[in-house]
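Practice problem: predict the structure.
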Amino acid sequence: MNVKKIAYWLVTILMCCLFLYSAQMYFFNTEMVKGFFEMLNFPTWVVIPLAILKVAGVIVVLTDFNSVLREWAYAGFFYDVVLATGAHYHAGDGLVGLSFYGIFLVLGSRLLLTFRNAKKETA
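Answer:
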């Protein structure tokens, strides 16, 4: 197997695990997450729809069903981790956390996907 392909799948699986972990927390600890959202002055009604979209995004990224949907999933993941990092920083949690590392996972997965697709086109 190609090193770029292994790197892509490793980073992508880590990214998907991060979002699935977040989604399961939203589903199973809804009241706790709603409390965090209230503390950060975010609307609480968005918790369950956000969890559903995170699971849907993981499915889209892993199945490669549609390239346009995959781009939207990556964009949604990027906005999610950037806004979460900003919210945690504003709340006084600092920059170090899962959302901060998620930025690098999303960018790394998307960049490695570009390299993987470029190799497919030249082959």
